[in-house]
Amino acid sequence: MKIGIVCYPTFGGSGVVATELGKALAKKGHQVHFITYSQPMRLDFFNENIFYHEVNISSYPLFQYPPYESALAGKMVDVVKYEKLDLLHVHYAIPHASSAFLAKQILKSEGIDIPVITTLHGTDISVVGKDSTYKPVITFSINNSDGVTSVSDDLRKETYDTFDIRTEIEVIPNFVDLERFHKQEKEHFKRFICPNGEKLIVHTSNFRKVKRIDDIIYAFSKIKKHVPSKLLLVGDGPERPAMEKLCRDLDICDETRFIGKLDAIEEVLSVADLFFMPSEKESFGLAALEAMACQVPVISTNTGGLPELNVNGVTGFMSNVGDVDDMVKNALYILDDENLETFKLNALKRAQEFDIEVIVPHYVRYYQQVIDKTKELQLIS
Ligand code: GMT
After folding, report:
1. Which of 78, 148, 193, 346 is least buried, going by the fewest C-beta atoms within 10 A?
2. Quick one: average pLDDT of 250-271?
3. Domain of residue 249, residue span
4. Residue 250: inside a domain, yes or no?
5. 16 CA to middle of ligand 1, Å?
6. What is the pLDDT of residue 230?
7. How far, in Å, from the CA of 102 to the mean position of ligand 1?
C-alpha cells in the first residue's frame, strides 16, 4: 500500500504513534509518505520506503494567522496525486481531519477518490473538542472520514458522548516497539543518579496542566521521607517553571532533577523503579506503556483509558485524580523490596500485549477494509 500519514511532528503521543506506525509499515514493505510541517522527532534515519513532504506555509503580509489548514490540504492533494497514494491516515482531529476533508473534495473534483482515516488521540476530543469553536468542525470531520479509530474504548465512548457521531469508531490501542523499549544494562547511569542505592521515580511528558505534575512532586516529597529516592522529570512544556519553583518551595531540589526533552528515553526507563502518571485525563497513556515495557510499574490515576492499560495491584496501582496520599501509600508498597520485582515482571508481561508486532496488523487490516469499502461505493455511484 502507499499510505500518507499526517501528524504533529513534535514530542507528544499522537506524533509518536503516527511516526512509529509509519516506520513499522515501511518495514513491512508499505510505502509511507509523511506530510507534516517539520521532520517528525522519531524519523531520524533513512529507509527506502519512507518519504517526507514538508508543508510550507507562505508568510504573505496580509496573513495575521498563516493559513496552515489550506497549506496542508494543498500539500495532501499534491502528494496523493503525484505519489499515487491509496490512503490518507491523519492523526489528531484538529486540523488534520478537516484539512483532509478539503483535500478529498479537491481530489474528487479531479476524479480521484482517496479514502481518509482519522485517528483520535485524546486531547483532540477531551480538551480541544470541547471548545465550542472547534466542536462543529470536529463533528463534521469525523462524520465525513471514511474510517475513524480511537486509541481506547474510553476515548471511543467519550467521542460518542461529546459529539453527534454517526459513524463507527474502531478501537486500536497504542503500541510499543519492544526491540527499542526493553530493560537495558545501564547500571553506571543508575549509580550516577542514585549514588547511594536510592530508588528512582520517573515521569515523562509534555508538561501540560493535564499531566498534574504537581501531584507527583507532592507525592515524592512524602515518599522520600520513607524510602531513600530520587525523582527524574523528563520532558518540557508550559508547566515546567512552576514545577521547578514548587520543588524549591518544598526543599527537594537535591533529590529532584529536570532533564528536559530526551530522545533515548528507554535508557532512563531502564534504570527506573516506578513511573508516575497522575493525569487528569489520559486517553491511553503511551508514556506509561513505554515504561512498562522497560519493566517499570506505574502509579496512575484511574481516568480515561488508563484502566485499559494499568492493572490495579498487578502492574501498578490507580488512584482517583488528585488523591496524592493514596498514590504515596501505593508507591511505598511497590517500592518495598519484597514486592518490587513482581510488579516489574507483571508490567513487562502486560506491555507485551501491546507489542507493535501485535497491534500494527490491526491497522493494516483496517486500511484494507476502508480501501475496499471506498472502491465498493465508487462502483455503486
Ligand atoms: O497530551 C499528550 O499526552 C499528547 C497527546 C497527543 O495527542 O499528542 O497524547 C495523547 O495521545 C497519546 C497517543 O495516542 C495517548 O497515549 C495519550 O494518552 C494522549 N494524551 C491525553 O489524552 C492527555
Report:
1. 78
2. 95
3. 187-352
4. yes
5. 9
6. 98
7. 25
